[in-house]
Design a protein that fits this description.
Keywords: Signal. 29% of the residues lie in helices and 34% in strands. The chain has 148 residues and is α+β, with helices and mostly antiparallel strands. A hairpin with a 2-residue loop joins strand 3 and strand 4. The chain starts with 6 loop residues before the first helix and ends with a helix.
């Protein structure tokens, strides 16, 4: 039986990811001078995080590129079981996104990657209000780096 995933469920899960501590990796990453929170891969069909990788300056640069390319709000998202993954990259410093006449300060970015659909970038403002942006970037280098 196919799993039906609602937009509100995905947003709630992404919001929950913002609150998850990663104590074991935190101390090792702090000693290495890297951001504390790992990059996470959420499998939409499975409904869970399937991979965590240490955050790095390269992931930070990828996220900054995505933020620069977030030029307009996305009209709507209706994910389903065919939508592959949601990637979370915690930012080492808050980033400001200016698009479609709004300004949002974010501490994490979430990439919605569905192979046959436009890429979308989800961010939450300081009040946990979600903002979804259309993203027109090549994510293949990122997918290779994260191991998918």
């Amino acid at each position: 039986m196919p799993l039906k995933v609602r937009w509100s469920t995905i947003v709630a899960l992404c919001a929950a990811l913002l609150l998850l501590p990663s104590v074991t990796q935190a101390s090792a990453l702090e000693e290495a001078g890297a951001p504390v929170r790992p990059v996470q891969v959420f499998d939409v069909a499975a409904g869970k995080v399937v991979k965590s990788v240490p955050n790095s300056p390269e992931y930070q640069q990828i996220a900054k590129t995505w933020i620069k390319e977030a030029k307009e709000l996305a009209p709507q998202l209706q994910p389903d079981e065919k939508c592959g993954y949601v990637f979370r990259i915690p930012l080492d410093h808050p980033a400001v996104i200016k698009a479609s006449g709004i300004t949002v300060q974010a501490t994490d970015v979430f990439l919605f990657y569905c192979p046959e659909k436009p890429k979308l970038l989800l961010v939450f403002d300081e009040n946990r209000k979600p903002f979804l942006f259309q993203l027109n970037v090549d994510v293949k280098p990122f997918l290779n780096k994260v191991g998918l």
